[in-house]
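## Example pair
The file below holds two records. Each record gives the amino-acid sequence first, followed by its structure token line.
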Amino acid sequence: MKTQLIYKNIIDLLSNRNWKKQERTTKYDIFVPPSILEFSNVYKLYVYHKYEKSDFEQEIVKSLNIISQIYNEDIDELASIIIEDRQILSLHIENEDIKNGHPSIPFFNVLINKSKELLQEVANFSVIKQPHFFESKDEAERYLNYCKFFKNDVGSLITKIQLPNNEEIKERTLFETSIIGSEINNNLIKITDFVNAEIIGRDNFEPTDEFLIQNRDLVSVNVSNKLKDLYTGIEYADIEISLKGTQVVQTTTAKDLNREKVNNLSTFSKTIREKMKEISENDVYGKIIQLRSKDVDSDDQNMIMIEGEIKKVKSRISVKLNSEQIKYAADAFKNNRTVLINAILEKGKTQYNVVELKDFRVLTK
């Protein structure tokens, strides 16, 4: 019943802000404020508890108006949290160049698009629960469809996103538990805070095995890469990300960002993929199945696709060649000759890519 959930939400909100229920009358729960507010001893907040009555929501809105004035909070946000049963994600940007104006359309679009990509990858991670993955789950799309993005007010560098709370994002099955929106939201804050505190803020960052194992529930190449894209997209501006609901507000901050700090995320991602054996050095024998060259005398536009075995599995490898190597490759392709490469390979969704080519040879037999 929706009204019962509304009642539960407002009681949870007050309890988590240390309001104490003093008594219950026939119509109202009476709360006294926490000492930190320094109100008089006679102050009382009345919360209507007759959720079966037709005037229940109207009475709750009156209480929310009082709470919004006490805490100087947006009444629409509180209504979203209590009545619509949502959580609110806020991204507060500090950028001196546009602080006195309002975000340009390109800036705002970058922020929204990068935020969407980040939310989707957090949802994927929450379902797949692997440090790195290539697929995107239907549940991530479902989660993103529940999110509502609000346009910035003029003069504001705060972007707010309404997130699902108790909605079931992943259905319960015989073998797996369900996942609700708030679990994904909490993962977002936990992983972002981990990245901000433990990765971006470190000099000469190089994660050890012990560090990765200790933080395995927070280790995600996909989410880290999207945070890197977000921080780069906002031009390394200071950013505060907070999650607000009936629980205590959770906040994480990234300050004094620069290219070097954010590039720690590249080191982090590379190390994880090496540990997962997704980046490794291999000798591969195979045949060239595709040859592409716009200019054989150029070192930048020559690509071949090799089909060969990697660890006893037939695989495709994309290789970039210089102007001399492409000539040998063209001859091997024409005559169906076997080639050998020694390279550091990076596993992709459908093929391997060469990170560093150490040797390329056409075999005589």
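Second record, same layout:
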Amino acid sequence: MTTLIRLVIALCVLLSACALAHAQKTDKKAFDRVITELEAGRTEKAFAALDELIKQYPNNPDGYLLRGSLKMEADPAQALRDFDKVIELKPDSGPAYNQRAILRLVKNDVVGALKDLDAAIIHNFKDDSIYYLRGQLRRQMGELTAALSDFDEAIKLNPGNPRLYSGRSELLFALNEFDRGLADLNYLLSWYETDPSARPLSKPQAHSDSVPRNDSNTFMVAIAQRTTNEAPGSKEMGPVIANAYVNRGFYLSSRGNHVAALSDFDKAIHIDPTNVWAFYDRATEYEYKGDLPAALADITKAIQLDPKNGNLMVDHGVILLLMGKDKDAQAVFDVLLQSDRPLWQKRIDERIAAMRKILPVK
């Protein structure tokens, strides 16, 4: 069964059960027929049955909610009309506001998405994924204190979702609440290291991760909407755990604990060898140690993973300078200076000045 179908069944059977309890018996039978076709993988028959259900019961919001959920990827315009209809018929439909928020976010309508998430919560559709998503959006808009409140509520609702601790730790560091942020990272990583697969899950989720990832806002939807809580050691959690190691390593490095920081960067790369910042931060640690060949290897790998990142190129050039390869370093800098000389000259000078305090530039 596809993720999308699991979403629809979970959404409309589990979350709309209260609405169905008041439906007529014939209405419920028609609805059940749609679900049966979906479970059997007969999508065309399911759509036909669903269209018939809506024709027979045009004032029942559940048919529109189900069709809108099915159409979110293939026909978002129709899905939006269906969610609008649900809200017209049932203004307190939290699930409809939530689904409409996702559609708005895919279209980069952050303000509209936030309004719908607010409405979903007001109408008692309270789920950790909704608070997490709203927290991410509030953070994006600079509302850090409000975002932290949402992360706290998400963890209160579902303490078994490891993604929540990772996200909250990043926000806490942004708020300079370093002790709390480090506590979240230590909790998450000790959870991973102690028992990566058998940690009990606190509750199932009724959302999907099937939304296309075509922009940063959509990505936030994807990471917030999950069908189940993953154990920290699961394959899907690899990038999250790796990023947690990177963040903890960066914090430890800033506090002068370079040995522990390097260990965390090693672990991050072992778990997720596509993590750009793990290679970047490890390269910086190697610079501090004076192991310039290792630093060069790591910064080269980081650039391979993210070739358009000018900041990585700045570090590449600085490492070459430290190694006495002035011509090679200047060649790297020239590429940047051709694109925006004032910006990149400033960053190059700042980076060289910072490294002179640690190692002599040859």
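Notes on the second record: The mean pLDDT is 83. The longest helix spans residues 178-194.
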